[in-house]
Fold this protein.
Amino acid sequence: MIELRRLHRFFGRTKAVNDVSFEVPRGTVFGYIGPNGAGKTTSMRILASLELPTYGDAYVDGFSVINDPDRVRRRLGFMPDYFGTYADVNVEEYLDFFARSYGLVGRERHQRLQYVMSFTGLDVLKEKPIRALSKGMKQRLCLGRAMVHDPAVLILDEPANGLDPRARIELREMIRELAARGTTVLVSSHILTELAEMCDRVAILERGQLLAMGTVAEIQKEQQPRREVNVGVVGPLTPLLEWLSSRTDIADVKVAGQQQVRFAHQGEQESEVQLLRELVQAGFPISEFSSHTRSLEDVFLAVTKGLVQ
Amino acid sequence: MTTASDALQSPLPPDPAGTPAAASVLAKPATGTFWQRFDTLLDGLSDRLNPILVKESRQAMKSRQFTITFTLLLIVGWVYTVLFVLVNLPGVFYSPLGRFMLFGYYLILAVPLLIVVPYGAFRSLASELEDGTFELLSITALNSRQIILGKLGSSVLQMLVYYSALAPCIAFTYLLRGVDVMTIFFILLYSFYATLLLSVVSLALATVTRSRQWQVLLSVLLVVALVLFAFFWCMMMSSILAAGSMMPYDEPEWWIANVATFTFEVGFVLLFILIAAGQISFASENRSTSIRIMLLVLQALIFGWTAYTFLLAGEEEVLMIGSLWLGLFWAIAGAFLIGETAQLSPRARRELPQSLVGRMAFTWFNPGSGTGYVFTVLNVLGGLGILAVVGYAHASATAGGPQIIQAEFWYEFLAYCYGVVTFQMGLPVFAKWTAWWLALASYLTIYLGLARLFGVLLRWGKVGGGMLSVFVFYLLLVVMGVLLPFSLQGLMQWLFNYGFSTFEYSPLQISNWWWTLIEIGMDRSVTSDGTIWVLIFVALAVFVLNFILAAKEVEQTRLAAPNRVLQDELELHPPPAKVVKRGPWDEPPPTGPHAEQNKNPPTSPFRPSPPAG
C-alpha cells in the first residue's frame, strides 16, 4: 500500500532523508520512530505529496507521489504535527468544509460527517467553535479531518503529542479500529511504549537513515540475540557456575549478588523453560528464575546514537 | 449528559461507505416539512458551489472585519445622506444634485471595494500559507485553480454585499435627478472591474512568498498601493461623473471601447488566476503552458483592438501606442518566462505534443527558459509584424491602390533584400514605422536573450539561476542599458568641455532603447545611419545563440502513462457501454441506475417463473 523507494531529501547539505526504502502492506499500523531531526516528518510530508524528494520516489497504492499526487491524495489522509484550523468556524463546519473539498456531496457527505464525528466523539461538540476546543479534542478533530474522505492510507505525525493518558488510550483504540477496517496507518510518535502496543511493524530512523525495521519482537531479537537470565539458588554458587559454564548456549556468566547468577542465554522462551527444567533435574535448589527482554525504549536507545544534524 | 469520551466508549458506528443501509438512505427522497425540503434543496445547491466559497462565506459573515466594515458602511452612508440633504435644503427639492450625492456614496463605497476587499483576498490566501492550512487544503481533491477561484468568488460575494448595502442610497441619487441610470451603472461596473482585478492581483501577490516576514512587507506595500490606486481611481471617476450626461452612449465607438475594456478585464483576470494557481500548484505540475496560452490570447487582444482602432481612426499614432503596449507586455511577460526552469516532470511529459507538426507548433508552450524566450520573441515578431502589415495595408489602401499591400511595402522589402544580398546599394533607409517596429523587436530580443544567457550561466555553475535572479538581472540590464551610455556620454561631454548644449543622440546610445525609440519616433537620423541594422544583427546573434542553447528543451518527448494510472483512469471514467442495435425494431438497451436490476429481475412469488428449459 505504501512504498518508499530509495527516498532522499536534502536541504542544502543536510540530508533529512537519506536512502530510505520500505513497504507497508494494507491494513497495517506502521510506527515511525526516531529522535528529533531523524527525517520522520520530512518523509511523511513527501508521502503526503507536500514535498518533492531529491532522489527516489514514494508510492501510495501504486501511484507515485511525484507524478500522480492527485491520485495519491484521493487515497490518503494526512494529520500533520500542527492543527491547521480556521478562525470563526465550528467543528461541524470545519469537517463539512473538508468533506466538500474531498468531493463528497449530498447524503454521502452528511453520512460521512456523522460517522466521523461519532467515531472521534465530536458529535456532542459539533456546534462548538474550534478555538474553544481542548488540545485533545483538536487532535480528534484533526484525525476526523484526515479520515473524512475514508482514505485507504492514514499518515499521522505525532498524533499523541501533548495528550493526557486517557486521550492517548482513546486515540490508540481509534487507530487500531481503523486498521481493523483495512486502513493502512503510518504513525510517528515519541511515546515508544504506545507505538509498541499499537504498531504491527516499526521503523527506526536516525539522521535520515533507516536503522532497523520489522515487528517489535523482530527488532528486539535482532538487537538482543541473547536473553539475559537471572537465577537465584539456595546454597553455594560454585557448582551452579561450573554447570552453567559447561553449556554452549550460555555465555557471560556472572555473579550478580550473594545468591544470584546472571548470564546470557541464546534461545527462545521454550529453551528457557527447558533450561529451568534441566537446572531442577540437576538438583540445584532454584529460588528464582527470571529473564529480561529489552523494551522498545531500550532497543531504541541501543539502535540510535543520539546524533543530530 | 453525554461526553465525548462516553461517545467513544460506545460501539463505533458502522462505516457508511458500501453498506446496503447507506445505499437505501441515499436512494430515499427528501421528506419533511416545506422548510426542511427547502433546506435540503439549498444544501444540494451548495454542493455545486466551490467549497472554498462556502467556507469563506461562512467565515466572512462571522468575522469581525466584515461586521465592522459593513456596519461602518451603513452608518457612514446614512450619516452622509442626512448631512447632504440638510446642507442642501431647500435646493434638494428642485436642483439636480444626484450627481454630487452619487460621488459621495462612491467615495464611501470605494474604501471597502478598492481597499478592504482586495486586501481581504490577499490576507485570506496569505494566512492560509502562513498558518499551514494551505497544506491541508492542497492535499484535498481541490486543485489550485479551484482554490484561487473560491477565494476570488468570496471577494466577489463580499463586493456584492457592499454594493447591496448602499443600493438604496444609490437609487435615491437617481431620484434626485442630475445623473442618469447608465452613468450609475457604468460607474459601478468599472468599480467592479477594478475590484475584481485588484483582488486577483492581490491573490497572485499572496503566493509570491510563504515567509511571514516577507508577507508582512508585502502587506504594507499592498495597502499603500491600494490606497494610492483608490485615490487616483476616485479622481478618475469624479471626472466621469463631471462629464455626466455628456457620456457618448449613443456613439458606437463608446460601446466598442467598453467591449474592449471587458475583454481585457476578462483576459487579465484569467491570466492572474492562472499565475496565482500556478504558484501554489505542486512542483511536478506543468505550471507554464496554460499561462502561455493566456498570454497569446492577450496578445491577440492587444493587436486585434489596436488594429481595429487604427482602421477606425486611421491615425498612425494608434499603431505606435499599440506596438508600445505590445512591447511592454512582452517585456514584462518575457522577463518571467526566461527565468523558468526547463525540468519537465514525467507527469508533465505525458501531455507533450507527439506528432512532428504538433511538436513544432506547441513545443514553445512547454515550460523552460529556452522555450519561453523563443515563445516571447516569436510573439513579439508576430504581433509587431501583424501591426506592420495592417499599417502598410491601410497606407496602401488609402493611397488609392487596388491591392491590400501595395507597392511601397514590397518595394521597400525587396530593396532591403537586394541590398543585403549584393551589398551594392549600401544601407537602405528605413521608413519611420518599419524602423520603429524593428528596433522595438530587436531590443526585446537582445535584452531578454542576454538575461536568459545569464540565467543559463548561473544554472550551469549551479549558483542559482531561478526566476527571481534572472528577473533582477534583466531589470538591471534594461535600466543600465539606458543609464550607462547616457552617463558615459555626459561624462565625455564634461571631460572634453563640449558643454551640454549639444547633448545629442550618438552611436554610443545604441543600447539606450529609450532614446533610440524616441529618435525613431521623431524620424531623425537613426533610421538611416545603420543603427537599426546593428540592432538587427545583434538581435539575430543573441537569438541564434539562445535557440541553440534551447535545444535540450526541444528534445523532450512524450512519456506513456504508467499502467496503474491507466487502470485507475479506467475505473474513474469507464468507457460507455457499446450499444449494439441490430435493427431499427430493436429496443435500445436499458440505461440508468436500475438498468442492471431490470436486466436480471429478481425472482418473486408474484412473478411467474420462466419456463424450464
Summary: The CA atoms of residues 396 and 408 of chain B lie 8 Å apart. DSSP finds 24 helices and no strands in chain B.
